[in-house]
């Protein structure tokens, strides 16, 4: 029999057509398929019967739900409960799946964020007693120059009395410093990113040599193409002699 | 794509052994994804390579996870590969010759990718494994030494070697992806084999939903296994020597490749001649291309062939022995065991299995 099936190859559509045609005539007793009235044919009237009417349908009891085992009970009674269970399992799997997907995606994306060594360098602690009065010191912070300027009384008074209407980017000096003695700004020109020179320019502050922007001793733009004042980062004074930036 | 993934007619009786093809696709996707994110932080210069891997594990957010998934993902790649090839041998799937031969090419590509990839962390085993295996090329007659120095980009495994190995490791997976598409193209010309080895046209079912869901289950099982290994015992299959930065002046006492290459390593070392060993190593993989020609049985697979089944399982056991031997030092009794096991490997494939195929025909 196996050899007939093995050689059926190209004839299988015809075999299937025969089997399909026979299906309405077959009664499923759950045990043995009853024979149909019309005989199947492989090569005409003398062909062998191909419908295997001796096949036993396996017992699927181990896999069936308890509610539908009794053939005398209507399965519609338990339909709602069975569907609810299936939907619950599917829904829970979907929730877990979505959460897992979200977690995996988040992990990959956050691997591209600042790593621990970058974050470790994200703060800088500066000893202020190293900076004499009237002088500006430059530090490397987060890859950029940080200007820390020890202002004189004269500079403080001058910057606090500037008329805001004169400024392209109006900001009062007291809004740019927490301790007027110390001006802390990022040394990157707001025009196109060059590093200004300290204690230079027409306003006693900084001068950017790239395109001629002049900043005052509060780091505010006074002349030239730069649109904004020098950026003031977040900083704190844990004590009188120390500042922590970042 | 619809025709290939949804409507694709598949035999109704293909077992779990048919899951490994899609699992290999998942492995490739996982390795490419994790590898891409590793490549964002890895540097391939010898002065910074080792520390860049440490940086990934310690500093990069979830870097430890991505690195360990990638390292152990490679092991799972080979587990799936060996299962997939074993299925091909057992069920006679190799009779789809084009699909099978592209598969052998894929196997070689994956081996090459894994080899250059293992060099990248620039640990002791990375360096010395690279040195040993690239030195094999010097066995090539006449041009051997020139060839080796060309591969090295210098007079030893050094910076030039590492940087180009990184380039290869990045490139090859995409070549593998292309070859995979070809592999499946040829497979879909014929459709899948099945455990009976018989024509299954009379009993095909659609890929979706039956095998889409079955494959999805396979994915879940494999990812569970991979994640468990990564989270609980990430170093289980690694070599402690690779926690030491590469030192060209100090050779570790026991140089060995990762577990998936050990059987080939054993075959290489079993022949006392340098060129002989290299040829045996090459032939141990290329022999797969001859297997379809050695098919003598009237039956396609081993399902109804008990004698050849026994021999195939002997081959499996032999490969496990070779794997064990590959990790042992070159001393008695491991030498003689390795030589017998190597001889048995070739004898089984070239002589015994074709013979039993012929014998079983007589019994039909």
Q: What distance lies between the first and last C-alpha atoms of chain A, to the nearest angstrom?
A: 83 Å
Structure annotation, total helices of chain B: 13
Instruction: Characterize the largest beta sheet of chain B: strand count, sense, and whether it forms a barrel.
Output: 2 strands, antiparallel
Relative strand content of chain A: 15-25%
Q: Which of globular, elongated, flat, extended, rod-shaped describes the shape of chain B? A: globular
For the biggest sheet of chain A, the summary is: 4 strands, antiparallel
Content of β-strand of chain B: under 5%
Fraction of residues of chain A in helices? Answer: 25-40%
The helix-strand sequence of chain A is HHHHEEEHEEEEEEE
Look at the helices and sheets of chain A and give the structural class: alpha+beta
Strand pairing plus helix content of chain B: what structural class?
mainly alpha
Name the largest protein-protein interface in this structure. Answer: A-B, 18 and 17 residues
Calculate Rg of chain A over CA atoms.
43 Å
Question: What is the overall pLDDT average of chain B?
Answer: 96
GO cellular component, one term (chain B): respiratory chain complex III
Cofactor (chain B): heme; heme b
Organism (chain B): Barbatula barbatula (Stone loach)
GO biological process, one term (chain B): mitochondrial electron transport, ubiquinol to cytochrome c
